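Possible regression after last week's pipeline update?

I re-ran a chain I had predicted before the update to compare outputs. Posting the input and the new output here so someone can diff against the archived version. Not blocking, just want to make sure nothing changed silently.
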Amino acid sequence: MSRRGMLLGAAAIGVTSGCAGGASDGVGADGRVTVELWHGQVDTGRKAVEALVAEFNRTHPTIRVDPGGGGVLADAMLQKVTAALAAGSYPDIAYIFGSDLASVARSPRVVDLTSAMRDGPTPWNTFWKPVRDAVTVNGRVRAAPAVLDSLAVVYNKKLFRQAGLDYPKPGWSWDQFTDTARQLTDHDRGVFGTGWPAVGDEDTVWRLWPMLWDLGGEVVAPDGKHIGFADQGVRALRTLAQLGHDKSAYLDTKPGSEQLYQVFLNSRMAMVATGPWQLPDIITAKIDYGVVPLPTYSGHAVTISGPDTWTVFDNGSARSRAAVEFAQWMNSPVHDVRWDISAGGLPLSTGTATRPEWREHSARTVGLDVFTDSLRSARVRPVHAAYPQISQALGEAIVSVLLGRDSPEKALRSCADKADAALLIPR
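New output (post-update):
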């Protein structure tokens, strides 16, 4: 989710397109340009983006953004956009995970936003470093930022009290996490200690990266030809194997993790690793909750930030300019702060973070400061063209371990074989 405002002329935007059409391409008979937006948001996020789109349309009479959504969840947007590009019928803007940007940006239809972002209305250096890293591929800015988040553990205080357990504290270990999850599990009452997506998608995978980084691993080894977590991955998967052995984790086998979160919102899960986007729904459900940093192996907390993007596609110069204008409008602090508060994101820039609306929101929202403070230890997934294949291989390994089909050692060997093969393919 993102935003950034201001009406800019074609020259000021500085869009570089792969195959731009004529200057009037996309302009209707009434002089209005229609921009098709695939956002993939649901529930709170959908309502928030649609409200902002409605305001943009009211204040920009020559542009109409159509927030159709794309018909898929954000988790499936990569496949949807890839198929659309192959068919030659694609949107003007799509919500693309930062981890998928390098793959998508290989298409000549992706608009180069280097000038638009670095010389745009929101100063480039005011965006947090994870944000800048997430939209940059080979030194070029290939998208506008959409969402900034981090990962922490949200816990249900009532379930802890019922189990007679102390609330978790910063610096806790992964062994303490698995032991606590076991003690909180009560199958007779339908209560799980924690949960994990078991689809094999990116939501399954990204939760494991902080564990691997904490152990000293990297997504890609320095030689660029192998994964950088062959040893660390086994240890992290052993932690998941323990959850599976104890039957203390609710395993969500449907895409989107909606069931996992519903279990937590229904007070049948005591702990869930999630981001600030989930807090609005948790507050609405009147859960008595707390937030604590992720557990650690090393004693030094590491988390992940998963900045996502608004990626602009070339459907002619007029539509490209209008799409960039919308992305810039969404990114401006005055609109970014509304998106963050409504949909549960963190400020994209220091400009947003210093706005009084954000400060008031943070002060009254339990645990939001934990997510914000954890950005100091946050890392981002590499913007690497082979990342989708690495993620798929690791996702399969995670699911096989959670379901007890393979040992951590066997699952990681299979992951390494597939991921290393993907890294050897010329990009």
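Follow-up from reviewer: compared with the archived run. The domain at 152-304+386-423 is CATH 3.40.190.10 (D-Maltodextrin-Binding Protein; domain 2). Marking as no regression found.
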